[in-house]
Amino acid sequence: MATSESTPVPVNRRGNAAVLRRIWRIHFWVALFTAPALVILACSGLVILYSQPLDNWLNRSLFIVEPRGDTVGLDEQVATAREHVAVDYTVDAVTPPPEPGRSTRVDFLPPDAAAYPAAEGNVTQVFVDPYTGDYLGQRSELSGLVGWANQVHRMFGNDAPQAQLPSLGHLIDPSAYPDATIPVGIGNLWMELTAVWILVLLASGIYLWWPRAIEAAKPLLTVRWRRGGRVRWRDVHALTGVVIAVVLVGYVLSGMTWSRYWGENWRAFSSTVAPSTQIDAPSTPAAMGDHDRLGRRIAWTAADDPVYASVPDGSVPQRLSFADVDRIAKGEHMVPGYAIIPPSDSSVDGDTVYGSYTVVNAWPQKVSEQRTLYLNQFTGQTITNATATQDGALSRLTSFGIAMHMGHQYGVLTRILATVACLAVLLSVLTGVLMWWKRRPAGGTGLPAPTGSADRVETPRRAVLLVVTLALGLSVLFPVFGVSLLVVLALEALLARRRRIRESESPDIDESVTLVDAQLSGDKK
Prior knowledge:
Elements: H1 2-6, H2 8-49, H3 51-58, H4 60-63, H5 74-82, E1 90-95, E2 104-109, E3 124-128, E4 135-140, H6 144-153, E5 162-166, H7 168-172, E6 181-185, H8 186-209, H9 229-256, H10 261-273, E7 283-287, E8 306-308, H11 322-331, E9 339-341, E10 346-348, E11 351-353, E12 356-360, E13 371-376, E14 382-387, H12 393-405, H13 412-439, H14 453-458, H15 461-477, H16 479-500, H17 509-521
Antiparallel strand pairs: 1-2, 2-3, 3-4, 5-6, 7-8, 9-12, 10-11, 12-13, 13-14
Helix pairs in contact: 2-6, 2-8, 2-13, 2-17, 8-9, 9-12, 9-13, 15-16
Protein name: Membrane protein
Pfam family, one: PepSY_TM
InterPro entries: PepSY-ass_TM (IPR005625)
C-alpha cells in the first residue's frame, strides 16, 4: 500500500520540474527580447507623464509670462504669430492661455505637411505673450526632450517605412471603411508585437512565482535580504513583477487601443459592436481624425467623428473671430487649455460646404472632461456638443483605459501609480540582469539550455494543452503575434533538428529537480 501511494509523487515531481524548466526558458528568452522595449517605454513614459512641468522648466521663455492687467485681443495675437512663419503656412489650432501667467500658443502647418496616416503631424508652435502681444518664440512639436520622448514611446508612429496590412473594418463594413488595407509604420508595428510578447512575459513570470510544493522554500511576498546575491535579487524581481503585473497588463492593452494597426481594427470592432449615438446634423467631408497630432489633441473616440457643417446666416457670410469663439468656449465652461480649431471649407459638387469652429478640451483628459464643441462659424450657435456619454460602451471603456495610461483619470493618484509602474519596470529589468549575472557559470553565458527530449516527454499533456490554447487565443486577438509565433516555432524546430543527433542523455530526476530549484528559487547555486 505504501508503495502504491508513493509512486505518483516522483512522477508529479518530474512533470512539475519539466513544466518549470520550459516556462523558465520561455520567460528568459522573451525577457531578453522585450527588455530593451520595456526600458524605452518606461523612460519615455516618465517624461510624457511630466510633460507640462518639464516644458515649463526647459522652455520657460516660451510658456511662462508675467501676469499683468488686460490682455491683447486673441486675433491680434494670432496675427502676430502669423508674421513669424512663412506666408503659406495655415493656422492649425489656437490654444488660449490655460491660466494667468501662461502664453498663447498658435499651431501652424506647412503646405507640404504629410497628412495622417502617411506620417505623424509635426506642427510649428508659435508662442505669444497675451498681455503685451509680443512674440516669444517658436519650436517644432517634435523637438526637445518631450517631443523626442513622444516619438520614441510610439516608435515613431506611422512615419515611413510602412506596411499595408488587412483592415478588419473593411471586412465588417466596406462602406464605412472603404480601404481594404491599413498603412502601418514598421516601428509602430514592431511596438505592437513587442507589447503582446510583454503579456507573455508577465504571464510566464506569474506562473514561475506561483506557490507550489516543488519550491516550498520560496517566499511569495517577502524578500530575503540577508541571503544576498542571486537569492535577494530573485525575490525583489519576483515581488516587483507580481505586484505591478495587473497594472502593466492594463497599460499594455490600453496602449494597444491607440496603436496604428491593432488600434484601428479595435476602433472598427468597438464601433460596430457598441456604436455611438449618431448626431443628426449636416457634416463636411473632413473628420476629427484630420486634426489628430502628436499630443493627440483629440480623444480616441473622436477620431471618426465628422466635422459638422455651418449654415450661413445671410447672403454675405462672415466668419466669427477667434476672440468670439474664445468667449463662447469660456461661457460653455470648456476646460482651460482647450484648443480652437478653425473651420475648413470644402467644395462638394461645385457647392461650398462651410466647416465649423471646433473647440476641444485639452488632451490627455479624464473621461468626464472629454468634450468637443462644434460652433457655427457665422453665428456661433452650437451645432452639437459631443461628450463621452454619447460614445458606445467599448469606446468609453477604451477612453477610460487611455486616461489611466496617461495618468489623468484620477489626477495625482493616477500619475503616482503610473510613475511607480515605470520605476518598477526599470527595477525588474535591473534585477533580472543581476540574477543572470549571478547565476552564469565562470566562462559561460548562463543562457538556458535547449529543451531536451526528457522535458518534452515529462511535460504533462494538460500543461501543453493550456499553453497551446492560450497561444492560439493571443494569435487570434493579435494576428501579428501569431505570425511571429510561427516564425519562432519554425526556428525552434530547425535548431532542434540540428542538435537532435547530438542530444545527450537527460539528467536523472533528482538532478533535474535540483536544477529547477537552483534556477528558479535561488536557494542553491
